[in-house]
């Protein structure tokens, strides 16, 4: 601006009025990272008067770590390439943490010295809205994925065995041979148990997806819980001629969510039985125990799987596979076990070799608090 109308105010004063009228943070910084000028919005943001900031080094106001890791490089690049450099960062200010979008622009003064003009705009509301929208989109994607998985399981893994049971019942109505009836009843019973187990898993998983975590910590005997799990599957274990060994200490008391542990052990044992052959061994023992956690080793000598499949076993529904005796499943068990353990800050991983069995390492807190 070459002149000011009526010479009412000086050109410099007019620029100061314009700078102070904006809510953006404006500052001028020299090549030594010293503040030469700031507007009122800038000084107010730090709870200081403009004259308190002028003469300060940037790191004295914003902190050495922030200056060294974020700002210094951008200011140097601005002066070196003689171009505007943009940035977006979260900053901790006296009035709270804010998200700012700004730019450093090089400018030559009347004295031929190069300075940097910083223009910073508060984008906190926009950033929080953006993150909120991203969260909503992610939730919608999860809901849609949940719906697709649910329909897939119900239409295939539940509907199919129910159809088989219906066919058997029709055959029963048409047969008069007692021997045939006796042969069919165990088959129907087995199908019903398998279907009930799948429905239990389906309901547990559906509940966890809809309601979220509801952790209930209680003291219980882990050895007894696994014995109870073995009892649930004793018919399948006997039928397949398997050995299941409980190598946990008999008086092993822990404090965690009993329902989660039961769910995990139930699915692991069911899965191990499904993929084991007559004479195979299934066992549970302690791998490691500290003051706060226990690592359990659940191991079987069954058919195993490839290392690639073992590494992706808990990432989602891997699909139903037929067991060594033609058993069906929903593919939900392993994912459900991982989800349940995550609710109590536990985890599970698998190691396996095709044809040589599988090892599951279960980490769980043993002094869980509500």
What does this structure look like?
The protein has 370 residues and is of the alpha+beta class. The chain has helices spanning 11-20, 40-45, 50-53, 58-62, 64-81, 124-174, 178-211, 222-232, 234-239, 258-274, 307-311, 333-343, and strands at residues 25-30, 35-38, 85-93, 96-108, 114-122, 217-221, 243-246, 253-257, 281-289, 293-300, 347-352, 358-365. It folds into three domains: 5-122, Beta-Lactamase (2-Layer Sandwich); 135-211, Helix Hairpins (Orthogonal Bundle); 213-370, Histidine kinase-like ATPase, C-terminal domain (Heat Shock Protein 90, 2-Layer Sandwich), CATH 3.30.565. The protein is 48% helix and 23% strand. It has a five-stranded antiparallel β-sheet, sandwiched between helices. It has a five-stranded mixed β-sheet with strand order 7-9-10-12-11. It has a two-stranded antiparallel ribbon with strand order 6-8. It is elongated, with a radius of gyration of 34 Å. The model is unreliable at 1-5 (pLDDT under 50).
Q: Give the overall pLDDT as a whole number.
A: 82
- The assigned structural class equals alpha+beta
- Beta strand count: 12
The CATH topology of the largest domain turns out to be: Heat Shock Protein 90
Indicate how many domains the architecture comprises. Answer: 3
| Main pleated-sheet profile | 5 strands, antiparallel
- Just give the CATH class of the largest domain: Alpha Beta
Q: From the alpha-carbon coordinates, what is the Rg to the nearest angstrom?
A: 34 Å
């Amino acid at each position: 601006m070459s002149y000011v109308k009526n010479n009412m105010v000086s050109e410099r004063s007019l620029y100061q009025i314009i700078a102070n009228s904006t809510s953006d943070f404006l500052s001028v910084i020299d090549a030594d990272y010293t503040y030469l000028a700031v507007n009122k919005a800038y000084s107010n943001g730090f709870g200081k008067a403009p004259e308190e900031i002028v003469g300060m080094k940037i790191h004295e106001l914003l902190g050495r770590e922030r200056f060294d890791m974020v700002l210094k490089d951008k200011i140097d690049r601005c002066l070196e390439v003689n171009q505007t450099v943009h940035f977006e960062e979260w900053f901790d200010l006296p009035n709270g943490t804010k998200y700012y979008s700004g730019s450093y622009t090089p400018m030559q003064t009347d004295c031929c010295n190069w300075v940097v003009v910083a223009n910073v705009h508060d984008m906190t509301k926009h950033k929080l809205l953006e993150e909120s929208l991203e969260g909503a989109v992610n939730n919608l994607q999860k809901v849609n994925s949940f719906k697709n998985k649910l329909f897939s399981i119900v239409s295939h893994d539940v509907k199919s065995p129910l159809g088989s049971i219906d066919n058997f019942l029709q055959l029963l109505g048409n047969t008069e041979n007692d021997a045939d009836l006796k042969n069919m009843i165990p088959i129907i019973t087995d199908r019903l148990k398998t279907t009930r187990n799948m429905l239990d898993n389906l309901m547990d998983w559906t509940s966890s997806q809809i309601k979220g975590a509801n952790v209930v910590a209680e003291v219980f005997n882990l050895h007894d819980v696994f014995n109870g799990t073995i009892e649930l599957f004793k018919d399948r274990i006997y039928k397949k001629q398997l050995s299941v060994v409980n190598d946990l200490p008999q008086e092993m008391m822990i404090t965690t969510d009993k329902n989660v542990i039961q769910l995990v052990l139930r699915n692991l044992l069911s899965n191990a039985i499904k993929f084991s052959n007559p004479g195979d061994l299934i066992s549970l023992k302690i791998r490691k125990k500290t003051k706060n956690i226990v690592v359990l080793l659940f191991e079987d000598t069954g058919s195993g799987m490839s290392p690639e499949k073992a590494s992706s076993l808990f990432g989602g529904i891997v699909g139903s596979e037929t067991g060594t005796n033609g058993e069906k499943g929903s593919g939900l068990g392993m994912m459900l076990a991982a989800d349940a353990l995550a609710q109590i800050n536990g985890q599970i991983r698998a190691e396996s070799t095709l044809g040589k069995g599988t090892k599951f390492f279960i980490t769980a807190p043993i002094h869980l608090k509500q």
